[in-house]
Design brief:
Layout (H helix, E strand, L loop, with lengths): L8 E2 L3 H11 L8 E8 L5 H14 L5 E6 L2 E6 L6 E4 L5 H13 L10 E8 L3 E9 L5 H20 L31 H4 L19 E8 L1 H14 L3 H17 L3 E12 L2 E14 L6 H12 L3 E3 L4 H8 L11 E6 L6 E3 L2 E6 L10 E8 L2 E9 L5 H20 L13 H10 L12 H11 L4 E5 L2 E4 H16 L8 E5 L6 H10 L3 E4 L6 H11 L4 E3 L5 H5 L5 E3 H6 L14 E7 L7 E6 H15 L6 E4 L7 H7 L7 E4 L2 H5 L1 H11 L3 E4 L1 H9 L5 E8 L6 H10 E8 L9 E4 L13 E2 L3 E6 L12 E7 L5 E2 L3 H7 E3 L7 E11 L5 E6 L4 E3 L2 E3 L1 H9 L4 E9 L7 E8 L8 H12 L8 E4 L13 H6 L12 H13 L17 H15 L5 H6 L3 H14 L14 E6 L7 H22 L9 E5 L2 E6 L7 H12 L5 E6 L13 E2 ...
Helix pairs in contact: 2-4, 7-8, 7-10, 12-13, 13-14, 21-22, 28-29, 28-31, 32-33
Length: about 1200
């Protein structure tokens, strides 16, 4: 591309370009302009003010420029014919005028069509006038807007008096806008990345992070005069300003709200230009890392000391600073929180000779995600929260105002208290928490599973109880089988609560086995026959099983390898019945379920009969399960929810329908089971429901469904709500006896996070911070569960039990289970889950401890270190990636396959990593631990989908072109979001080649080439253009590169070939932009590389020779051939005419000329060479 720029054009500064491109993404819409306003006591003559505006524009070129796309490059173009946008409003009240002016000031600037300045004049009742001047940040910052407004006030009286106008010696407004910000990856002058390095705040987003960071909502709060006086007195005692106390309190509040100790606060530098008070473009970044154990006084004094040494950012907009320092993030600001404090009234000013005062417009945008503005007056403190739309709502900001006021009270009253112990919960919010977290009575009383099922055995002995395929067992048959099993187990003489393993395939007798174990006073240890023998052996040994019930589902050698007595199910069912013994006590052990363990080994959770019975009865009450209804059970018995699936119907007088393991895993077969048995209720994990939908299941308007075991996406929840009778969202870890929280979801198209509702009877919740203190409503903390469902603990693991099962400070003798789940109370009193606070993850419904996987991988003899990370952004596509460091660098032959086989032998299928990567050295942190953040940045091995997607393949090649070879084909074009300049070039390339107009935010939002390809398909379809077809050859002509001179150094040849694939396209772009290559394909052959592309070859031959010499120091001889009428050979460097027909023998006639030629550019008729391989071979033979 030519470097020539006309006199009416100029290249924007780096910051202007960044601001313009950011505006084009629509991501910062409304937040990249600056306005200043004055309210003057008098009328303003519109014609005179318009003349003053025009003169202002004539004086400053920056006010006459707009952007224009010139050959794919955005340039600033001067347009003298376009006047300042002038808005004249109608007379109205001050409040109404402020609202209208704020809307006008927030309007998007069309930088492609008009200069970036507008002036508004709004008459106000009482003979006053509101004057507002707005500029885009690409013109200048807040100080520039203030200076322009001040000068406009000086020039208005001159315009009123009429020409000629005297000269003005006022310093010129900056012409280039804020010039200190450079590209998205360059170093910023005066900015220390080390100082700015911090972990961004994670807000408790309730509605999903939306586009348009600049848009915000505002709420107000206040502090009465009496407490303001106490604050002043406290500040005087400590020796700091009231502003320092307020800022320190804000930092403490944010720490208590988010858990982040190190938070950057942005604060403006107040100054004055002429008579106009402004907040200068420089922002102070105030940083102070908090210690929760430090006293209030020490914290406030440290805040004061820190404020004397702020980090300044000259002329840096926060939005641009964010993209410069974190180009890989498409959202999130570097300085997320702003603080502004006014401590006194501004003196009166004049504007245009009239008495005036500064006005802050209530604009609906902010440079921060959260901004706190405080005005301290004699009658109290008035505060304003401004929160980004999508991150905050009015209820959250109102609650934060209450918490801030509460904190300020505690700050003054308890100056010696550690800041981590200060109360931040307002009495209003504490009352709400007390209601939501109040303990409740259990639903099952003293009943156990034995009594609950026995009641229906006595009432309805002949009613069907269990159904599997064509086999039906009545309640009396269930009773008979359970009685025989209990009697036979009694002969083992095992102590009460002894664990007994259950290792059987899914069969109709399964409920009878579990019921018989309970009647015998033993504790069931359900196991999955599909799990590896190593895991089964560990469970049997760790739980202390007195025996294992088996039915032949496993080979006998695997069963005997478990090392405990084997009890045959057939023998149990054939045993003589015996009178029933005493039913188990509610607090006795019901079952032991093994989950993934953080120590690298599975851990057994000991659940009592009281917890099991309470969950069954409470769920029956919530679902209103009737004796005439049935439930389809699909979950393996080694998953705790199988206990509810098996017995919910049986404790309600209904029917349990058992699906086989094969049916539960196959969507089509599961559909057939649903169609055949028409159950009334079905519980399943999100993945099972997705499998059903993927196989075409339309739903069932008569089916009640519940879903838990993993995070339920809003999309899945909406789908289940819309196609079933009822959808119940459930939550509960094994340690809380299955369900702990449950709710029927209504249809809510606005859901971004699906709530899990309220606790079951007998269950209560606590949400606590890291110090164990309650958090206010809406604030994320760790979820603790209390009540009758809390398990005893972990079998044989007292240290782990003590860590996770802690005393309940509100209940004498009570305990709470620390779930490790993050949660918050919504404003309506419903629970909302927000992820995990440890490394435990859930994948496709299975709870997984990566440490257990790493322990198995590290156990391989050839592995020194192993680490795992979870890859995939979509919850349903998450998978485990394993990183391996071999013990010996040379011993990598088939290592991955051997380690994978080892993992499959020791781990269940859902815990086996989906991909592996070998590392020469495992990245470590400064403390010697594995650096998992570094591992997460390593791209896991993946299949290249580009080859099978024509649009994605085209996009991949186009990205290589616009990035001039700095990107590889395996990289994702979505990474262009980090460099908007490249994204702009890609957009221009797509428009020129494919005739479709991508938006920059399409590219910003894309993560992969496939994402962009999908968007291109949508645009082409909307325009009626057929999809791309990849034929493996060019549409018009071909470039054939012949390596003909063996004297070239090998490295020079390689460099040339890499350069050729990109730079020749650049040359073609200069000559004929309309023929820019749409695709570039390569076919390798001995001695030759065939490149398929489009371009004008003859006119670029000389340029190629010259450029190659400059790039690699070798001057090749170039021979160009253009398809036209046949003629004889021409000397090298000239432009012979030739038509290459299907007779490839004609190519051989060039052999003599080629012997003296380093590079042959051959324009081939695309209809002639139907086989690129043949052509490559022929050309290779020429050498």
């Amino acid at each position: 591309m030519s470097n020539d720029v006309s006199s009416s054009e100029r290249r924007p500064t780096a910051s202007q370009l960044a601001l313009y491109l950011a505006e084009q993404t629509a991501f910062w819409a409304g937040g990249l302009q600056h306005c200043r306003a004055v309210l003057v006591a008098g009328d303003v003559v519109l014609a005179a003010l318009a003349a003053a505006c025009a003169d202002l524009q004539r004086r400053y070129a920056a006010l006459r420029r707009h952007f224009r796309d010139v050959d794919g490059e955005p340039l600033l173009v001067s347009s003298d014919g376009w006047p300042v946008e002038f808005i004249a409003g109608a007379p109205r009240s001050l409040g109404a005028a402020l609202k209208v002016a704020a809307v006008d000031a927030s309007r998007h600037f069309d930088l492609d069509d008009r200069p970036a300045i507008r002036v508004g004049v709004y008459p106000v009742e009482g003979g006053r006038t509101l004057v507002v001047l707005t500029i885009h940040a690409a013109v200048g910052g807040r100080s520039v807007a203030a200076r322009l407004l001040d000068e406009l006030g000086q020039r208005y009286p001159l315009a009123l008096a009429g020409p000629p106008w005297p000269s003005n010696d006022m310093p010129a407004v900056e012409q280039g806008g804020p010039g200190r910000v450079v590209g998205s990856v360059a170093t910023l002058d005066g900015v220390s990345r080390a100082v700015l390095a911090h972990r961004p705040i994670t807000w408790p987003v309730s509605r999903g992070r939306g586009r348009g960071h600049g848009r915000s909502i505002t709420t107000a709060w206040w502090l009465e005069e009496s407490h303001t006086a106490l604050l002043r007195a406290f500040a005087d005692r400590v020796g700091v300003s009231v502003a320092t106390v307020l800022r320190s309190a804000l930092r403490i509040l944010l720490f208590r709200e988010t858990g982040e100790r190190d938070i950057l606060l942005g604060s403006p530098k107040p100054t004055r230009i002429g008579d106009v008070a402004v907040a200068a473009d420089d922002i102070q970044i105030l940083r102070h890392a908090l210690d929760p154990h430090t006293s209030v006084v020490d914290t406030v004094q440290a805040e004061h000391t820190m404020a004397t040494q702020p980090v300044d950012h000259p002329d840096v907009l926060n939005a641009v600073l964010s993209r410069a320092l974190r180009p890989e993030q498409s959202d999130g600001l570097e300085v997320q929180v702003g603080f502004r404090c006014d401590t006194g009234a501004e003196p009166p000013i004049t504007w245009a000779g009239m008495v005036a005062r500064d006005i802050d417009l209530p604009v609906a945008h902010s440079p921060y995600e959260l901004e706190c503005a405080v005005t301290v007056g004699d009658d109290g403190i008035v505060g304003e929260w401004r929160g980004a739309v999508g991150l905050f709502d009015e209820q959250t900001l109102d609650r934060m105002g209450r918490s801030y006021s509460t904190l300020l009270h505690g700050l003054v009253q308890c100056p010696a208290r550690p800041i981590g112990e200060l109360d931040v919960i307002h009495p209003t919010d504490r009352t709400r928490l007390a209601k939501w977290e109040a303990p409740t009575s259990g639903a099952s009383g003293e009943d156990t599973l034995v009594e609950l099922v026995g009641r229906w055995i006595r009432r309805t002995p002949d009613r069907p109880a269990v159904v599997m395929a064509d086999v039906v067992h009545t309640y009396s048959e269930l009773d008979a089988a359970a009685t025989r099993i209990a009697a036979a187990l009694g002969t083992l003489r095992l102590p009460p609560e002894s664990p007994i393993g259950i290792l059987v395939a899914r069969r109709v007798e399964l409920p009878a086995i579990l019921l018989g174990v309970a009647r015998a006073g033993l504790a069931a240890v359900p196991m999955d026959p599909d799990h590896p023998t190593e895991r089964l052996s560990y469970i049997v040994g760790d739980s202390g099983c007195g025996g294992v019930i088996t039915d032949g589902a496993l080979p006998i050698e695997r069963v005997t390898a478990l090392g405990v007595p084997v009890v045959s199910l057939s023998d149990l069912l054939a045993a003589d019945p015996a009178p029933p013994g005493r039913p188990p006590h509610p607090d006795s052990l019901a079952y032991v379920l093994y989950t993934s363990g953080s120590t690298g080994r599975p851990k057994g959770v000991a659940v009592t009969h009281r917890g099991l019975a309470n969950c069954l009865v409470a769920t029956r009450q919530l679902l209103d399960f009737q004796p005439t209804q049935s439930l389809l059970a699909v979950t393996t018995i080694s998953f705790d929810i199988a206990m509810l699936e098996t017995f919910l119907a049986l404790t309600s007088g209904g029917r349990t329908i058992l699906a086989t393991s094969a049916q539960a895993r196959n969507g089509a077969e599961l559909q057939a089971v649903l169609a055949r048995h028409r159950p009334d209720v079905m519980q399943a994990t999100p993945m099972t429901w997705r499998i059903l939908f993927a196989t075409g299941w339309p739903g069932d308007p008569e089916l009640i469904v519940s879903c838990g075991g993993d995070v339920v996406s809003p999309e899945l929840a909406s789908r289940l709500v819309s196609c079933t009778k009822e959808f119940w969202h459930t939550y509960g870890p094994t340690e809380a006896s299955m369900y702990a929280v449950c709710e029927r979801l209504p249809r809510d198209p606005q859901m971004s996070i699906v709530p899990v509702g309220r606790p079951l009877p007998g269950v209560w919740l606590r949400i606590l911070d890291a110090a164990g203190s309650p958090v206010p409503p809406g604030v994320v903390g760790e979820l603790y569960l209390g009540g009758v469902g809390v398990a005893r603990g972990y079998i044989g693991a007292p240290a782990q039990t003590a860590e996770r099962f802690v005393p309940d400070p509100t209940s004498e003798g009570g305990r709470l289970y620390r779930t490790g789940d993050l949660a918050r109370w919504r404003a309506d009193g419903r629970l909302e889950l927000r992820g995990r606070n440890d490394r435990q993850v859930k994948i496709r419904g299975h709870r997984i401890e990566p440490d257990e996987i790493e322990s198995v991988l590290s156990g391989h003899l050839d592995i020194a270190f192993a680490a795992t990370v979870v890859a995939g952004h979509d919850r349903d596509s998450r998978n485990i990636v394993a990183f391996l460091q071999p013990r010996q660098s040379g011993a990598v032959q088939d290592l991955v396959s051997r380690v994978a086989a080892h993992a499959r032998q020791a781990l269940p299928a859902y815990m086996v990593p989906s991909s592996y990567a070998l590392l020469s050295t495992m990245p470590l942190t400064a403390t010697g631990k594995i650096d998992r953040a570094a591992l997460a940045r390593i791209k896991p091995p993946r299949r290249n989908v580009v080859e099978s997607d024509p649009e994605a393949r085209w996009m991949s090649e186009a990205w290589q072109y616009v990035s001039r070879g700095s990107a590889s084909r395996d990289d994702d074009p979505g990474q262009l979001a980090g460099d908007l300049r490249l994204a702009w070039k890609l957009r221009a390339h797509v428009r020129r080649e494919l005739g479709v107009q991508l938006r920059l935010d399409d590219i910003v939002a894309a993560a992969t080439a496939a994402d962009l390809a999908q968007r291109i398909r949508q645009l082409r379809l909307a325009a009626g253009v057929p999809p791309l077809r990849w034929s493996g050859r060019a549409d018009r002509s071909a470039l054939v590169l012949l390596q003909g001179d063996e004297a070239w150094p090998a490295q020079a040849v390689a460099d040339f070939e890499r350069w050729f694939k990109v730079s020749i396209l650049d040359i073609a772009d200069r000559r004929r932009p309309q023929d820019l290559p749409a695709r570039l394909a390569t076919v390798d052959a001995p001695g030759a590389t065939v490149l398929a592309a489009r371009g004008d070859l003859v006119t670029v031959a000389a340029d190629i020779a010259h450029t190659v010499r400059e790039r690699i120091g070798v001057g090749p001889k170039v021979l160009a051939v253009e398809p036209s009428a046949p003629s004889g050979p021409h000397p090298p460097g000239h432009a012979p005419q030739w038509v290459v027909s299907r007779d490839h023998a004609l190519l051989r006639s060039w052999r003599a000329a080629a012997e003296d030629t380093d590079l042959v550019l051959l324009a081939v008729d695309p209809d002639a060479p139907t086989d690129w391989t043949i052509l490559a071979s022929v050309v290779a033979g020429m050498g």
